Amino acid sequence: MASRRTFLKTGIAGGVLLAMVAAFHEPLDRWTRKELVGRMPRAEARRVALTAIIPVILQGALPSDAIERAAAVSDAVDGVAVAVAALGASAQEEVAELFALLLFAPTRIAAAGVLPAWDEAGEADVAAFLTRWRTSRLGLLQSGYQALHDLVLGAWYADPAHWAAIGYPGPPLLGKE
Amino acid sequence: MIKDPYPAGIASGWRLLNAAEFVADREDEADVVIVGSGAGGGVAAEILARTGLKVLVVEEGPLRSTDDFHMRESEAYPQLYQESAARKTADKAINILQGRCVGGSTTVNWTSCFRTPESTLAFWQSRFGLATYTPDALRPWFEMVERRLAIHQWDMPPNVNNLTLRDGAARLGIATHAIRRNVTRCWNIGYCGTGCPTGAKQSMLLTTLPTALEHGATIYHGLRAQRLVLSGNGARLLECQAMDAQGIHARPVRVSLRARHFILAGGAIGTPALLLRSAAPDPHQQLGGRTFLHPTVVSAALMEGLVEGYAGAPQTIYSDHFLDNRPVDGPYGYKLEVPPLHPVLVATTLQGFGAAHATLMRSLPRVQVILALLRDGFNDASKGGQVRLRGDGTPVLDYPLDEMLWEGVRRALASMAEIQFAAGAKRVYAVHEECAGWDDWSAARAGIAALEMRPLAMRIVSAHVMGGCGMGMDPRASVTDPAGRHHQLENVTVADGSLFPTSVGANPQESIYGIVARNISLLAPMLSGQPAPALA
């Protein structure tokens, strides 16, 4: 089905990295759609990856206290899930494919360049991955970075708990209720 | 005193049906079915309902009104915008803001009103045979919608975000002007984009749709128009599907609507898509083509003093200097305006992550932003995009970006940075993945010249989708005639921004109001035998 592979085909241009991704393309399509996306506990798998990725995207915005920080990251993971659930059907499918790509070990290594599993990845691994995708010449990878950027930062700054830190007073009181 | 007309209207018998609650298929019949309740659908609904015709309006989005608007981006984007305000072009390079709720984009727009520019009308006359689209012929229609929607010169002082555009431009000898707005007793709080919480904005939600409801119109919301069933030279039935409670997936509950005439006003992505799903005749492959966006690029500045761009009417000053100083069909010209600066919109638009992003966000009260809207569709090489259907029938716009556009983008970034530095900016950031900001105009000028222009690296946004069912005299080069009637389907009229054969070159809402008021006033007597009532 054309629509199922839209994300993976977007902006494909060439290069060694692409060849590696492409080598996993068909197995990924069969495998991750049915296995990862279908049967595995998708939310849990996403949570593991996002718990590694979010602290790097939100560096400088998260609390420094370890316990508060862990709670904030956990809330941010939930916030991303809420944001994804509000997207259009096609975008939700593409986000599922993005996470399938990040979670399937061969494509995590080949496309994201992250060798360790997500729960073992350090902040330097994640920052290098984000920078690689952000500056990639492959539309596929750059749009994947931008999806993570928009979902994580959008969900974070949607939360009134994070407004005081940026000097945003919130909406005015109108005396309506 | 804030008054939401919907609770009382519903109590008085307004026919508002939430299809998201339907559990069984149903049918309905009317003189006219209108698809979409935004600028075009709203105006058409009022005119036709007031001639005594039975009118059904189909809206995919939900009904939310004044009392439901809480000035929260986290509520507004999922509820009121297409694809949660994250609609993207096919290659994901352009993010499109479009309303999807009762009132359409008029419920969430920033209240900027412009008559269709004379240079645009002249181009439509000469290139598309729209002989009746003269400023003199359209003036009474613009005046009528201005009276109806309280479009007037707004007289409160602009917020600092807008003043910065005005003052920086003035120091460079660039003229700016005040934007006319469709508001009454505006509280000047700045939350037009999340649905006006005070009822000041004279959107379709609070003007034409209530009038249509008073005259017996029915609005189905939470209902997606899937396909016109065609027979002979026309349409006989509109097949619709009820949406789920979240408004994301269509459910297998069908609503069939019969009518003598069908008016398509689902916006310039939705209307071509409905015709594509209906396999409407398209003998010259015009349908969904020439779709324009006013591709918009963004320049953010860090100012010394407070800007507080989240407060105050969002868009009140503009400059057409870079549209007016060049031929309309030459290299891209651009209109300058500013956006509201609320946390989610700013955080998702600004490039980068981690400490650099967090540092800029902590400066939010001092951030100033200018937008440049590129006027597409006038140069022969500016062909716009093509609306296509995905496997599931939902639409996607393919809008290729080319060298000529990048040349315009570069000039626009330079103009905005120069204005921001002239206004006293400490640092300016072109919204481009590879820009880390510049401390003065000469650094910015060199830096902008060196930026690599390619899709996704250069962030582009759009809030104005136009074209795809363009009007023209020649059926080989257009989808609709100069009155908006479909060239091949005799009882189908298009009445939204998809009519425009180029971009407008200005925020399009008033162009839609005025041109649809004219076209539907020509249609109404043919359907009803009654003269069309004046909107005001």
Secondary-structure map:
The complex is a heterodimer of chains A (177) and B (536).
Chain A lengths: L5 H4 L6 H8 L1 H15 L2 H16 L8 H20 L3 H15 L1 H8 L10 H12 L4 H20 L19
Helix pairs in contact in A: 3-6, 4-5, 4-8, 5-9
Chain B lengths: L4 H7 L3 E4 L7 E10 L3 H12 L4 E5 L13 H8 L6 E2 L5 E3 L8 H4 L3 E2 L4 H11 L6 H14 L2 E3 L6 H12 L5 E2 L1 E3 L25 H7 L3 E4 L1 E9 L2 E10 L6 E15 L2 H11 L13 E2 L3 E7 L14 E2 L2 H4 L9 E4 L5 H7 L4 H9 L4 E8 L11 E4 L5 E4 L4 H20 L4 E4 L10 H10 L9 E3 L3 E2 L24 E3 L14 H20 L8
Parallel strand pairs in B: 1-10, 2-3, 2-13, 3-10, 5-22, 13-24
Antiparallel strand pairs in B: 4-5, 6-9, 7-9, 8-16, 11-12, 12-13, 14-23, 15-18, 15-21, 17-18, 19-20
Any overview of this molecule?
The complex is a heterodimer of chains A (177) and B (536). Chain A is 67% helix and 0% strand. Chain A has 177 residues and is mostly helical. In chain A, helix 4 crosses helix 8 (123-134) and helix 5 packs across helix 9. Chain B is an alpha/beta fold and 536 residues long. Chain B folds into two domains: 5-149 and 202-290 and 464-528, 3-Layer(bba) Sandwich (FAD/NAD(P)-binding domain), CATH 3.50.50; 160-187 and 296-375 and 402-454, Cholesterol Oxidase, domain 2. Chain B has helices at 5-11, 39-50, 73-80, 105-108, 118-128, 135-148, 160-171, 208-214, 267-277, 321-324, 343-349, 354-362, 403-422, 441-450, 509-528, and strands spanning 15-18, 26-35, 55-59, 87-88, 94-96, 112-113, 151-153, 177-178, 180-182, 218-221, 223-231, 234-243, 250-264, 291-292, 296-302, 317-318, 334-337, 367-374, 386-389, 395-398, 427-430, 460-462, 466-467, 492-494. The longest helix of chain B has 20 residues, at 403-422. The radius of gyration of chain B is 22 Å and the shape is globular. The two termini of chain B are 24 Å apart.
